[in-house]
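Box S1 | Example of a co-folding query
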Amino acid sequence: MAKSRYEYVKQFELDDSALPGTWMVVRIDGRGFHGFTDMHKFEKPNDLRAIHLMNRAALEVVGNIRDIIIAYGQSDEYSFVLPASSTLYSRRISKITSTIVSLFASNYTMHWAEYFPDTKLLVPPCFDARLVCYPTQRILRDYLSWRQADCHINNLYNTTFWAIVHSGKSEQEAEEKLRGTFSKDKNEILYSDFNINYNTLDAVYRKGSVIIRQETEVKSVSQKSGEEVIRLKRLPTVLHDDIIGNEFWKKHPELLV
Ligand code: ATP
Ligand code: ATP
Ligand code: MG
Ligand code: MG
Ligand code: MG
Ligand code: MG
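Box S1 (continued) | Returned holo structure for adenosine-5'-triphosphate
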């Protein structure tokens, strides 16, 4: 196509390619979800429907963008990891970030009604996103450990906070009771006041969600013979494993190459 005399403005688009040979992590986070969760009457501390919807949107992103090797989600955030060798969109930061966040938000919206059949979506959900490059495996693992530790700290606080509120105290009273407490104090309050052993709560709440591609048996019917055949396919799968310790990484050595 002939070039117009306006074509020169293209030169103003600066190069924003991510540093080569580094892990790229895109983290998306719900905008104003404190209000969003109130407005849609999410159960507190954890609305399982909302966790499943976040996971569904993330599964669609991982299924759509083949370069993503692992994703980790908790609360209203999800991190998507692209390996150092990835050449997706020539590693252009804005292109990668905007594609991932837009896919996530549209899937969250598109699948809302499957997870919230009785709750009308009142405002368009919105997510921000950033891309950060991490130079080594160790730092990448520390990044993921940081997010899972954050999940643990917030979930322990929220679980205790809402147990106090649901027992008839005001939110202000609950906040005062928890001010300055350590983890062991919250565990103790949960155990002695509410008979809750924190460590036995479902891992989906304590550990958040990890998505990796796992070999999964997929059944289909052969068109030729009409017989049922079982194939192994690598499908994005949600786990609630600990990713801070070494065990997970020993079990999945392919993730860090
Ligand atoms: P910002 O726009 O700065 O991110 P925010 O209001 O989204 O502001 P966050 O720190 O991201 O602030 O907090 C997310 C909020 O969403 C928290 O209040 C958290 O409790 C709530 N939330 C996220 N997921 C769930 C869930 N599954 N069930 C109940 N509440 C949830
Ligand atoms: P990329 O992902 O690289 O952007 P693309 O297929 O979106 O690939 P574009 O150059 O953005 O490529 O082209 C947009 C396409 O959408 C064109 O084929 C254009 O004709 C089509 N299109 C956009 N708007 C309309 C419309 N209102 N009616 C019909 N076709 C449209
Ligand atoms: Mg925030
Ligand atoms: Mg948020
Ligand atoms: Mg958040
Ligand atoms: Mg286009």
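The domain at 18-146 is CATH 3.30.70.3000 (Alpha-Beta Plaits). DSSP finds nine helices and six strands in the chain.
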